[in-house]
Records
---
Amino acid sequence: MYKILSLIMLIGFFMTTISYAQLKYPATKKADVVDDYFGTKVADPYRWLEDDNSEETKSWVNQQNDVTNSYLSKIPFRDKIKTRFAELYNYPKYSSPFKGGDNYYFFKNDGLQNQSVLYIQKNLESQPEIFLDPNKLSNDGTVSLTTLAVSKDGKYFAYGTAAGGSDWNDFFVMEVAAKKKLDDHLKWIKFSGISWKDEGFYYHRFPTPEKGAELSKANQFGQVYYHKLGTDQSEDILVYEDKNNPTRYFGVSTTEDERFLCISFAEGTNNNGLLVKDLSLPNSQFVTIVGNLDNNYNVVDNIDDKLLIQTDYKAPNYRLILVDPKNPDEKNWVELLPEEKNVLQGVSFIGGKMVVNYLKDASSHVYLYETNGKLIEEIKLPTVGTVGGYNGKKDDNIAFYTFTSFTYPSAIFQFDVNTRKSTLFRRPELNFDFDNYETKQIFYNSKDGTKVPMFLVHKKGIKLDGNNSVYLYGYGGFNASMTPGFSVSRLLLLENDVVFALANIRGGGEYGESWHEAGTKLKKQNVFDDFIAAAEYLVNEGYSSSKKIAIAGGSNGGLLVGAVANQRPDLFKVALPAVGVMDMLRFHKFTIGYAWVSDYGSSENEEEFKYIYKYSPIHNLKSGVEYPATLVTTADHDDRVVPAHSFKYIATLQEKHKGNNPVLIRIETKAGHGAGKPTSKIIEEVADIYSFVFQNLGIIPKY
């Protein structure tokens, strides 16, 4: 019976493949737009798609979605994948508890709620109560919580919300005891936390954008304000701005004791300067700790009148220093934790000790230190994986942290600083046999001989005969480290005998700032070479073949997928560029895109233009080439990487691609770059993407 069903499904697969060969893509108008870059004429015929408010663009979006939906609807197992993913996703999910005043807070999702609900409890043994339910903020779950902070005395709770996945935030305040929302309402906030001081808080915002340009206009002239509870936003006090540097934006924070106000300033995603103000002193002024943008400086907290700062200055793998704001010269810095071979990821100040997280070959190793830098001991972890947290206070001996790995769903541990013991606090239960799968880390050589790590996750006992399907994921940028972590959607791959591969390519932070810089600006090709070499390793070692490899990445990873699919279309069968940066000549002209120049360079610099132009995904598609089956994904409210990148890319790809591989775009509505996406949309999107992958890799799911 099973063989008969399989045969029927196989026949259906080939039948739908034949019908898909007749795909007709929407006719996309071309305009005569040409730019001159240092004497090089570059056509941009689809620039009209940058106007996401025009009726013409909206009509084009609808036509593209119609073609994509028609294709996906014909995949015979699409509904089965959706049903199975919903089954896997439907389990209670918890966040790590955190303390605010005398109360504990945590998030919980019963399973398929669109947004996780925030609970409050008086202590860890008391009955939790619902404190704030984001599902009630909108009818469809598209309004999400973004940031939150409890005042030092625990009386007030401030939080941010975002609508439709946009980066724009609105801030509100609640009175904790009464669970009552106050009248405070702050708008046009972006890339900001909430930093309490007395009866108010500091935050970062941009000027109100012009109507119709909210999701595309460049965000400039950032400002730091102080909001006093009970007042209108128009009365907020301007604390800091820099009108001479319009692309400079700010991070603002207060130390746990609210003594110091710290403002970091940056113009890119890497490197910042640092200003500090001692709020305990009347009429104190800002002191410049670092006035340049040559390195990274992160204030961990203060020890009395001095600041703990994590930095990569003279230490590509980072170190921890103690700085006296009254004597901020470098000669007065005290080094508590010198640079090591492993990368210093983060430091938490808990119970009078320092919990220090290092990254070794892309996985977490955690240690307990005295505040003078003396090692106490290593905190043992369950297996190779990633630590999140630690949530705890300076004067509280209890901290919580999360631990996860590819086949280890995110679990919460309670750590007692006094006893130095970790105990399992909460672990999710999934109906999935994780014992059937294994994780291993291999190292392969890139084009220039650089050794690159890669994690492989697959069913135990697979044969290395070149017939396994592979889902290869990468990012490679902005100092972001890709570490072992659990994803429910990947279970769909594993249970259908797909090998999941995560390549820790250059551009990330897995080996510190030197690893990051080796994949930036005029070295960006290293990132693509590393990823291509990962696929070649999988083929050469018998894991797979070029007809069985799907590649995926989002944002900067979408750029990665677009670039390598152009450079080696023969090596991949499926390409999944999500919310990608595809127009490398114009990315800096929209929203916060100018901040990425620190990683990419700019088309306004002649040398960098020549380099970028050689790999920019939109500009390197060639007519008559058979490209991999491609499903581009983006969203109408993405104001981080505006959807015009994906619109122009797919229009160009559909124009130039030759062959039967489908090249489609899926444009989500009322969604953004990914954060805050409701569960219902996650399930729909994953079902569509994996249906596309399985269909084009020839996988018949076991459902």
---
Amino acid sequence: MREITSLCALLTIVAPYAPAQTRCPEMLKYQAPGVALMITKAAPTPAAAPGTLRVSPNFPGTVPVPVPAFCRVDGVINQRKGADGKPYGIGFALALPDQWNGRFLFQGGGGLNGSVALPLGSQAAGETPALARGYAVVTTDSGHQGSVFDGSFFRDQQASLDFYYAAIGRVAQLAKEMIASYYGRAAEHSYFAGCSTGGREAMIMSQRYPEYFDGIVSGDPAIRTEYSNLALGFMTAVFDEAAPKDDSGKPDPRKTFSDSDRKLIVNSVLQACDAKDGLKDGMIFNSRACDFDPATLVCSGSKTDSCLNRAQADALKKAFSGPKSARGDAIYPGVPYDAGIADAAGIPGLLRGPVLPVPTGADFMHFDPDREVARTEADKTAQLGDSTWTNLSSFAGHGGKLLFFHGLSDPWFSPLDTLGYYEKMAKDTGDGSVASSVASWSRIYFVPGMGHCQGGSATLDRFDMLSAVVDWVEKGVAPDRVVATGPAFPGRSRPLCPYPQHAEYIGHGDTNDASSFACQQ
């Protein structure tokens, strides 16, 4: 790779760049030694004014800032016919901006992938995606085509391996080589950012490809989906027990709580925990100090809108505590009481009735946690995708920086599971102290009120983790706080503080301004 970089630097001196409009179509001829590669498209893409570039054909949002002209290169690695007779191959798209800033970003995927997203780099980048900043950005379908939760590709061994970890490693290497070829020099720094499946992929990069990236951002990671799905199945079963039954005796967990019940629960959580960060503002930053107990809402007489019946209160406490074995051992962490647990927009909050992102096959009417654990542990294939390896000594050793963030109202993956990984990583990679060795190269932030990756009626879900990790890598400036804003609270800003700190009001100053809050232990 060093020889390639030196050769590219020499070519830069003796052969000035041709105009981008000329260079881009030439990428159709690009070949990589030892790689079965087909470039299917290499087309100049004109600059886009704010609000005109669609993020995705299936997503209504547009990019709110100008996006400069870029060359888009699409291709497929290892086209083949699978064991099931279907066509496979690792599809990718690489955006090469005309005004390149010398950086490379790998944009993580979502769900079970299956499509090549626009290489934009908007995850945890605030209002300005990486491409708009001049980054070269790559995306991939991770080796198969299909809808976001179409798991039929798992019947093919190679497609499964590609999805779990192989595709992202191959695309990262190829993208770096293509960037060096196109610009005549290698990227100065490389970054990865993703959420959900992309968050899992970010962790895989730090664990299996420790020297590929200088900085990594992992959001709401799907660390071990077989266990998170088990936990959702458990919650469904618990809410079934307290739910009203139809004429056939079948329960509906979405009716366990009425709208007035949900409002009562959220208001009671806020009443118990909101002010523990120094200010009652509809957001719970000191989540660790939250001591809400559903038992305090049990009716003393008949059921009314101002109380819960005993079955509802018991179900709420049991469900949020997480599944446990017959011996009482925790199988998967519980979830925090937070202001967004009853949200209806986007992915419904947990009080709306658990929504499984991927079917587990569990029998919710006769749910047995121990039986489900045995079934889960027998599925060794699914464990290939777990991102649980905690020895990151090589990643940290080469100067890599790793940021995590997780919404406290995430209805799919418990933020406490991500915290559990982080704390174990501190023990296995460093000296066991989050405040010392691990904090010198990794931080984790919890976002009050935020659902899965974004959104929420009581959250500030716009924050720039990309700039935070870049400043840490390139300037040595540790992200002691990352300022967040969001449409749920117009005009308000708050600092996101690295665990175990939280944002605390200092007692004076504008309560809508992040400068009036300190990160407190």
---
Amino acid sequence: MTHRRERKKSIDHTTSFEGVLDVAQTGVGYVMVKGPEKDILVRPQHFNHALHGDTVKVTIIRQGNGSGKKEGEITEVIKRKRTEFIGRIEQNADFAFFIPDKSRGVPDMYISPDKLGEAKNGDRVMVRLTDWNNGSRSPNAEVVQVLDITDEDDIAMRQILSEAGFPVQFDERPMEEAASLPDIISGSEIEKRKDFREILTFTIDPSDAKDFDDAISFRKLDANLFEVGVHIADVSHYVRPGSALNENAYERATSVYLPDRVLPMLPEHISNVLCSLRPHEDKLTFSAIFEMSNTGDIKKVSFGKTVICSDHRFTYEDVQKIIEGAEGPYKEELLLLNNIAQRLRRERFAKGAINFSSQEVRFTLDEKGKPIGIEIKESKESHQLIEELMLLANRAVAEKVAKVKVKDKPLPFPYRIHDTPDEEKLLPFVEFAKRFGHRFNTKTPETIAESFNKMLAAVKGRPEQHVLEQLGIRTMAKAAYSPENIGHYGLGFEDYCHFTSPIRRYPDIMVHRILQQVLQGTPRADGEMGEKCVHCSERERAALDAERAGNKYKQVEYMQQFIGDEFDGVISGVASFGFWVETELQKCEGLVSIQSLLDYDDFRLVDTEYCLTGKRSGKSFRMGDKVRIKVIAADLGKRQLDYEWVNESGDTDDKNRRTRDTARHKSSGKRQKRKK
């Protein structure tokens, strides 16, 4: 201990850096710091109460020799990534310990008898880290919930959320504040707002949606002029700065959508009741109102606080049937809106937006949350109707605020930005696309976007469509929130923000508040806007990672029933250690290890070709190639599928076998549906 104190005195604290601690499976940590400094090695004895994912301050204690890493000691935990953990209770007569399921540097935690709740020895529980006294090897924790050990799916989803740093339950204070909010809108509040309750208004959402945060109003002003209102739930009316609700919403920053549940950003009383634009209920909204011609030309734009009463709740399927010719309520209005939306869409692509196609893979779950089927949903005109009107409102709000200055400087604002493609990623893709006959003009960002659209139109329905779309998306920068307005390259907008989903995104709440200040003529510069944008972007990425992990878990769970069976698939990625294959019908991705190919040839990665190539045979496995695979392992704990390449002979017997296999899998799916 004396040696440690003496060594700490010799530390030069001017060499401290801020970064994120990444704890490897070996227990050693690396602090990923900002700027040119390389990652700093931190040994477990120098973590000083920091855990994996925490934002920390680290001080250099030993300079790296030659190519060696600098070594450091964590001197401060600035922000914890997560405070909730899943594991089991070990209880003695006077105290208990929590033993985490997945350690990765997470220590056992002490739980005093008054913090055990209903938990007993051996129970699986979720706990919350409450404090960590200096000098103590173990932090203190409290039991949040006793888990049902028979429901592994529920435990797995909770584990994914906690690993991503999202508290599974709300604290008492925000819940109490939400419960205290009045359900009835006062007459005095309605008098402050423009009243749209007598104007035709409806919502269009997925069939399973509960939080309807946007609605559309429509009315004719004359033969060729219409008023289209985009009405967004006025969450900022209920979630006020300085409240526990606001603090909690900011920390979460987003809702998280897993295959079997939604973890909302706001308590359900707000997201599903007060702010959900349910039919035949008066609701407070913040609106963008557009006067436009029947060709979609915008004549006038206005913004303001409103009150609406939705006349009808449509699902996307309802509206799509009407677009395709079926009868239904408000058919004339829906068809006019669809024509306007399609014109806006064509204009957007003509001005530089990139037209990547999108499809959503969703699991059909039984009553216990087990996956029994897979459904692929593609973007249709009903989805595009809402998408285009939301994009229109988001862009209009950003254009309004972008003109505002405070003390001759642009008003700090959470723009939604998207940078131009990274040249290092773009150039290899351009060379690869040439192999399929597609040439790119890379002189300007505009010509790059034009080239992308030409390629995407040309490959639609062709075998190479999937690989070129996936690789093209990977060349793109990540969209993010920033006070620096560099525009949104993918959408082709100079000004863009998120205004239309404040129930599930905190940046939208910030946008509502700033827009209201602008409309009142009292805009105020927020000196912390940059920090807030960084936080919201990080939480968005964490939510996307959690959603991918949840989908992967369900993929593995679904494919467990097919161990030993063969499927047709498409190579979706390559690496030095193997290649990934996505099955064609199930859209479930697994790894074919290079070790499993050794009997056939010695394969090496060719980066520029996006392929593995055999030294002797010349056989290649390239992204986009169709292959036959066998499912050999499905590990739920690791959320990992392992496949094996099937070396097909191509003779008649083999083709007959494949036909029989396909028929058997389809029959299996039908049997499962009958069981349900």
